[in-house]
Amino acid sequence: MTAHDAIDMSTSAPVGAGRRTDRAPIPDDKEMLRAAVELTRDIATARPEIYWPDMLASAAIGYGALAGAILLDNPWAAAASGVVAALALYRALLFIHELTHIHRDALPGFRFAWNLLVGIPVLIPSFMYEGVHTLHHARTRYGTIEDPEYLPLALMKPWSLPWFILVSLLLPPALLLRSAVLVPLGAVIPPLRRLVWERFSSLSINPAFRRRPPEGDFARMVFWQELGAALWALTLLASTIWLGWRPLAIALVVVAGTAVLNQIRTLVAHLWENEGETMTVTAQYLDSVNVPPPALLTPFWAPVGLRYHATHHLLPSVPYHALGEAHRRLAAHLGAQSTFERASYPGLFPLVARLARSTMRGG
Asked: Count of CB atoms within 10 A of residue 219's CB?
């Protein structure tokens, strides 16, 4: 959810990339691309017996733990419950990434159920990612000014990285403001409606991105999701009259925790070293990151298959539960010295350190 990630957190993203002109274009590794297709044909189908229990259990654990964080008197127990809530809801929220890639008929009812149970309650309905994330995977858009999910972070100033993380704390109040105030006002003020849609309706980090108006069936889906999110946001604000601000404040803190987790994951999802040029598929793969086993903490900060983010860029239609097997097959077939292995890294902290060193050199 890349997110992250906020009401277009790109509006606060750092800008001012430096120049890096010492890189020759990377040609496509045709053997790797061919193997990626041929070795994964039999595992490219989304399995409902995995998707449904995973999403439902994550949501149930998240909301149960959130209730504990609100209701428990012991502050340590409440804090621990809040951490569990943030981790579980983070996993549940990241199914929004799967919704952008699976075929619309692959999992009947899954999109509706996810929006009803997760997207609308957290004020991140699926339209905020659908139709946006696919642009990030477009062959001629990745890493360019037209990519909503790309910034050359490795070429920016060193202070850009902590700012990139801290700005995600604005996600919960931003989402609440968007759905409870801006969307209802936009219903009667067309210029505001256009502004909200263009700038504050996508999970993007590129401040130059402007979203095009929705059309057809997608526009109808947006209408109902916006209506549901607006009614829920107004209900949350109204609840403070009877319950006070404490329950809502705790919920906002938990959502902020999921936002920070997603922003950290986004920070190391790519190397962020492209300066805006069109890249080959292999170059896009090498600018992306895999953190395969034995890294133990990766399932917590990169769940739902996102530890195999580079492999996902090779095979965007392969469902999350098959990415591990796809990665193992390709690694075994192509070998330890292959282009494929060059996108694998040992863990979160080495990636953050690499990115920080790059900003110190290039920024």
From this structure: 11
Distance CA 225, CA 179 (A): 10
DSSP 85-102: HHHHHHHHHTHHHHHTTS
Q: How many CB atoms lie within 10 A of CB 294?
A: 7
Residue 295 — very low, low, confident or very high, per pLDDT cuts 50/70/90? confident
223 closest CA partner among 97, 110, 115: 115
pTM for the predicted model, two decimal places: 0.91
Residues 6+ away with beta carbon under 8 Å from 16 = 156, 157
**Three-state secondary structure call for residue 11:** helix
How far apart CA 129 and CA 325 sit, in angstroms, is 26
Residue 8 has pLDDT above 80, yes or no: no
What's at 345, amino acid-wise?
A: Y
Contact (Cβ atoms closer than 8 angstroms) between residue 204 and residue 43: no
| Sole residue written with tokens 């801290």 | 166
Residue 270's beta-bridge partner residues? 288
Answer whether residue 14 shows pLDDT above 50: no
What is the token pair recorded at 243? 């319950």
Once rounded to an integer, what is the mean pLDDT over residues 82-111? Answer: 95
129: tokens are 């990612």
**Residue 145 CB neighbours (<10 A):** 10
Alpha-helical regions (H) of the chain? 30-38, 48-71, 75-93, 95-99, 110-114, 133-137, 160-166, 171-177, 183-186, 190-200, 216-243, 246-267, 281-286, 298-301, 309-314, 323-334, 348-362
202-241 residue pLDDT tens? 999 999 999 999 999 999 999 999 999 999 999 999 999 9
Which helix (H) or strand (E) covers residue 20, if one does?
none
Residue 84 near residue 58 (C-beta atoms within 8 A): no
For residue 290, list its beta bridge partners: 308, 344
Selected residue with higher pLDDT from 251 and 7:
251
State both tokens at 86.
């943030």
How long is the chain?
Answer: 363
Of 274, 271, 262, which Cα lies nearest the Cα of 289? 271
Asked if 314 contacts 25 with a C-beta cutoff of 8 angstroms, the reply is: no
